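User:
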Amino acid sequence: MIRQFEPRDAEACSARSRACLQMDPLIPRDAREYLLRLETAANMRERANLYYLAVCLLDSGIVGAAGVDMNEIRLLFVDPGQRRKGIGASLLEHVEALVPPALFEDIFVYASPGAVEFYLSRGYLQGGDCRFVIGDYTFGTVFMSKRIRAGRGIRTGSSARSMIR
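Assistant: Predicted structure:
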């Protein structure tokens, strides 16, 4: 079951997120230690105040979470022991459905290099490598986007007036 994050979910979500960080071989050890210190229940509650956050629950509890801010996927993780069961795809579909196609043509994400294949399999296209600096550490990501509606451009002048009639 997928539902909106509630404050009582913060401890479980941060524990799952930390488990994912610990399993990522592409994050250097010292940078991982730094990120693990930042990944707290308070941080998870703050994220939920800044953007929409959803959790996926199974009988065992929270097994993943996803977040979206306007048309940016801000967070997506699945407990390492629950991967390859469709949970990530379900969470991604859930938050993608919240992006209003009337306002946005694309959804985008700064994916960790280890998640690129997942996003490619969900219809995202690679846009290029990006670097983020957090504290004293630089992290590599891959900008990826997915079209959610065909663009029509901005209509002005007589073409816009003809649409109103």
